[in-house]
Structure formats: structure tokens, C-alpha cells
Amino acid sequence: MPRRRITQTDVAAMAGVSQATVSFVLNGNTPAGVRIGEETRQRVLDAIRITGYTANPLAQRLAGGLTQILGVFTYEATFPRAGRDFYGPFLVGIEHAAERLGVDLLLFTSAPATGGRRQLTRDGWQRLGVADGCLLLGQHEDRGELQHLLDTNYPFVFIGKRGSDGGRLPYVGADYVGATTRQVHRLTALGHRHIGYIGVRGTDQPTLDRVEGYRTALKAQGLTPSFVEADDVAAAAAEILARSLTAVVVAPENHPEELADELERRGARVPVDVSVLLLGQPHHPRRGGRRWSGFSVPREEMGVRALYLLSRLVADDGGRRDREARRAHAVPGTELHQLLNCPDVEGATAVPPPSGTDRPARVP
Amino acid sequence: MPRRRITQTDVAAMAGVSQATVSFVLNGNTPAGVRIGEETRQRVLDAIRITGYTANPLAQRLAGGLTQILGVFTYEATFPRAGRDFYGPFLVGIEHAAERLGVDLLLFTSAPATGGRRQLTRDGWQRLGVADGCLLLGQHEDRGELQHLLDTNYPFVFIGKRGSDGGRLPYVGADYVGATTRQVHRLTALGHRHIGYIGVRGTDQPTLDRVEGYRTALKAQGLTPSFVEADDVAAAAAEILARSLTAVVVAPENHPEELADELERRGARVPVDVSVLLLGQPHHPRRGGRRWSGFSVPREEMGVRALYLLSRLVADDGGRRDREARRAHAVPGTELHQLLNCPDVEGATAVPPPSGTDRPARVP
DNA sequence: GCTCGCTAATAATGCGTATTACCGGATTGA
DNA sequence: TCAATCCGGTAATACGCATTATTAGCGAGC
């Protein structure tokens, strides 16, 4: 009952040629010494049309070709059962790009999860091989794994800026430094002089970048940084008031909602007494919650760009010929390291400081 | 530079045996006539451990095995750029199940989209072959495509009940009939006697089921159905008031939010004057919008069950031996047709009818 | 007559695995 | 002693495709 699928051999039989001829016609390739007459070519093409033949991606790959499948590996669950949907927006972009590229997406959901984090173990390496290349999303990174990726020359692209040894790791990231800098400038333009940074200074790249942006912007304005590294919101709020800060910037993972609540509980209105700029989108938008001012991370666009970049890396790698002519002229949008702009979000949590504390820098 | 991956031949060389022996040891299979000594077996296993060998899924599949990849085909974009995220909840469940099954997911994003709908054309058939089986999500269905699926004996499972010719199509659906029936009973229990059904009666399965549930429940109560098939909310609202309905049931795609607004604009308060039960989750939950009463579709659970079912179909199909002993005792949770319960949502849009119109059926 | 050079293909091989067919030596049965 | 049986494996092949090496035919030039 399960009738075999049409193969090149079937097509060949129908056209009265050899399987190899069919392969040549399909690929348009006539590698040095092989010629196919126009008449035969047409016969083959007709046979293909009639039988509705399509290549078997697996066999192609096994024979050294490409599957037209691109992989997506997430270090955490791609679609979390609980908690915020972090990867969703990326996938929207990734899928869109995949559609345009005519490529299927392979989600590596089988990777063994150790302690909630997926590992790219040896078991996983073989599975990667099904795809022509792979997108890596998530903060976690394992030196050994990355080295192996580089060693085997397997095409991959990180989503999210890679700082350490970033030179060799292709990525598409968000410009947290620039965006954070701009947020501080928004505040100083409103007249703020005492601007704090809320949150523990972790070692993940986004945090490092936010801190750098904050530092840079304050220095440019001749102001002194004020880091509030409290463990809980209550302590943070107390510290903000103790230091008489009129504005703070805070990353989404540092509980801005709760912080604002805590501030108001202590009599400081947001934003009238304290402006709050959010360095990214809120994690758990509340129903009827605040409309945060700050910036947004272009996740969808990152997904698109990352897949395009990956696609190009695959193409470069797949076409083993003429390696030199490659980066003769860099194709725009396919640089190995891309930092996308994070557009400002107007919102409603940034206003001039209360009079009597700071003064607007310039009165219109 | 791109060092070859470890193959069975490499392992064989290290263990001093033939490639075939390695294959036998790996599969535990000793197909009638082949015997492997315990000592050799251990040597092979050691070699596997040392080299970190893992099977290449492509080669396995090509040789008639399984890839441990399951496909997901959506007739519309899986992750829509705009509009509601319909498939998301399903994917949460699907991914979770995939993780447990140790299986990767292949998203068929490359299928050519004609007029916004993906087609499963001949071009797609070959690509399907990469996966051991496939999940189909979306309302659209093409007779020819389905017939082909059945003919080729390719394992697949629909998400969403399949009515027409449903007998042969495996699916995991939601019990819209039962859930809708229950909603009407909720209303009658509150004392409503004039209950309308809002929305054009489409031919898609969920709508058919909702209408059936509505009909059944009303008949059981000795009440007469009242279908409001207006094109726009204004007309619908007018009709509701003209017919003096005290409660309506409405599917999420029929703009319940706008309908409620329109009713209140005309002086009828929701739910005081008109109770509204939502037959499913709202499509575009508003910030600070109503907390709808009604039921919810267990999409996540549907995803889980569907993938489990698919996995079983694949296993049945893959183990070509002893076909008969198969459904000797049906494994629970793997019936070919599954209808999942849609739990009630309490909400705040269902109250007893205003006194003077209807009376509570029973006063406590 | 024989080689050279060109056209138009085909035969053969490899990719990594599963599987079938076969084989060589040792032990047993008569 | 010779065949039958059993043990422990190997060789060969197929899967569907890409690619390299090779072949057959034919007209021209020496």
C-alpha cells in the first residue's frame, strides 16, 4: 500500500536516460566534462513535470548537499509553559524569514535538559547535522560547545550580542549600550541631574551593556553614576528616596512594576516625583498597568536578520568553490556582527523633575 | 578543517569488528541468524562510549529507519506578525511533549503560500519525508491532500476535530458541543429563558459544534433557539434588544467586546441587562477589558495529546512487524479520535436576568 | 589507418545506516 | 568419518542523491 515515492531513477527510466543525467539536469550543473544535449534536457524536464518529482532532502544532505532546513536551538524551553514568552517575538521574525527563504525550521526540542537548561551535548551534534545551519538563542553559553561549533565549521548565528570572544561568533544583537545612553539623555534633557541605575550588576551581556550605556551617558553630562544594587524592591525604593534621585533607569528583569508600587507606597509618586525609564519591554505586562517609557528591543527584526545571516553563511559554506571571491563586496545586512537599534518608547513614566530639586537644563 | 563526524565504521575499526556488527549492537537487534558474543558486544559498546558516537538521523531514515523528528504543518503562518497568536498555546504543549518524547520538531515554513494559506503540494510531500510523522493545524483542508496522506500511509494527526470523513482522520479536538451545552445550562440555571446565539453560522467545525450544542441544550430545556446572524455588531445589538433576549452566547471571532460596547451604548448594561457567555477565549484581550464568562479551549493539552498520539502512530507504523497484535489493548490516551473537555471560566459577564423579565428557575 | 579532439552521455562510487545473505570453524549426532 | 547443527560474525546491498571517472561515437588532421 505505501507506494514508494518518485526518485530520480524513476524519472530517468521515463526519460530514457541514466539517473546521473537527471541529477545533472536538476542541478544545472555540468561539472567539467559532462554535457547534456538540449533535446535530452527537455525530455528529462518533461519527465520531472509529469511525475511531480521532488528531491529527497535527506538523501541530498547525505550526499553532501543541503537540506534547506535551518535549525533553532534555545537554551531554555522555546515555548515556556509558565512565565513570559521570551522567544515568541523572535520566532515571529524567524518564521517570516524562513518563509521568504523557502526554508524549513527545525526546533531542537530533544536536547537533554539538565537543570532546566538545554545542553548541546555530543548527542545533539549529530542531530544538528540534519539542518544546514543553526540559530542559537539564549544567554547560556558553554565554551566547549562553542569551540566545537567553530572547529567543525558548522554554520551558526547567535541571537543576542556575544561579548566574550565575540570576534569569532556571528551574532545579531540589540544595541543596549546606545539605547540606554539615549534614555539617560532623555532624562537629562528633561532636567534631571540625579539619575540612578537600579539592579544588581550581573555579568550577562545585556546588563553589561546597559551599565556601560548608563556610565557613558552620565559621564558625557558630567554627572556621577548612582548604582542601587539592592536585593529587594523595598530596599531599592528606600535607597532611591535616601539618595534623592529624581529619575531611575531599570531593566525589565528588576521588577519595575513592584518598584513603582513600593515607591508610591512610600509617598513618592511615579513619575511626578520619580521618573522611571524601562530598559526594554516589561516582562509581565499587567492588565491596566503603567505605560512605561523607555525603549523596545526589536526582537522580530532580530529574528529576521539572524536567519538571513545564517542563510548566507550556509550558502558561503555550501558553495565550497571559489572561497576567495566571497567577501569581495560584503552584502549589506549580512555582516557577521549586527547590532540593531532599539527604538524609544514614549510612554508615560518620564516627566521633568519636581521643581525645587533639579531644574530643566533648558527652558524653551 | 571540517573534521568528519564519527561513523559506525570508525567505531567498528576501533573495536576491530565490521560496521554491520556495530549496527547490530546499537539496535539490540539480532535478526534471525546473527549472533554477537557478549565479549565483542562490550568492546563495541566501549568504542561507542569512547568516540562519543551518535547515529546520523538522516542516514537512518534513508535506510528505512526513523529520524526522531516530528513535523508541524500549519495552514496559516505559525507565528503571525499581526493579529492574535492562535497557534502559540498549541506549540507550548507540543514542545513540552516533544521534550518528553526526545523528539525534534520540524516546522514546515517553506510550503508555498497561496493567498495567505499554505498548500501541502507535491513539492511539500518530499519535505514531509524528513519527519517521521506530522501534525496538521488549521481549519483548511484539501480533499486531495488528505487522500494522498492516507494513500501513502504517512502518519499524521490533526489538531481540531475533523467532521467530514472524520472516521479515517486521526485528530485531537476540543469538545465544543459539550462545552456550549454547559454554557446554556449555566444560563438557564441562573433563570434565563431567552437565550440567543450570536454570529453567522459558518461551516467550520467549531461553529457547527457550537450551534449543535446550543440547539441541544435549548431543546433539552424546552426553549426555542434564537439565532442572531447580523453582519455587524450594531445590527446584532439592535436585534438582541428587539427580541428581548436576556442572555446570549457568542463565539470569540464574532467580536464580543464590540458587541458589549454597542449594547451599553444602546442603554443595555452587560451583564445586568444582558448576560454574555463567550464560547472560547477572547481573541484580542483588551487591557482592563471584561473578564468574560464562558469556557476555555485546552489548547496546550491538545498539543500534548496530539503529539503523543502521533508518536504512537509512528511507532506502530515503524514497527512493521506483528501488525495484528497492535490494538489488542488500546493504550489509554492514544485513541484515534480524542475530544478534550473545555473547562468553564467563571468570569463576570453572567448574572441572573433582570427581575420582571425572566425568573430564576429555582430560588435557593 | 591511426590518433586527436570534441560531444553526449553512462558507469561507478561515496555518503552513513539497516538488513539480508552467506561463511568458516567448532561441536555434536549417527 | 561424514553430515548436521550451532556459534559468531562478515560481505554485500539498498536507500536516494551528487559527483568523478570513463566510454562511445564521430569528424578532422597527419
From TrEMBL, chains A, B:
Domain HTH cro/C1-type: 3-30
Annotated keywords: DNA-binding, Repressor, Transcription, Transcription regulation
Keyword Transmembrane helix tagged: no
Record region (Disordered): 342-364
Record's signal peptide: none
GO molecular function term, any single one: DNA binding
Coiled coil: none
Pfam family membership, one: Peripla_BP_3
The keyword Transcription regulation belongs to this UniProt entry's keyword annotation: yes
Residue ranges constituting the HTH lacI-type domain according to the UniProt record: 6-64
Protein name: LacI family DNA-binding transcriptional regulator
Organism of provenance: Myceligenerans salitolerans
Classification lineage: Bacteria, Bacillati, Actinomycetota, Actinomycetes, Micrococcales
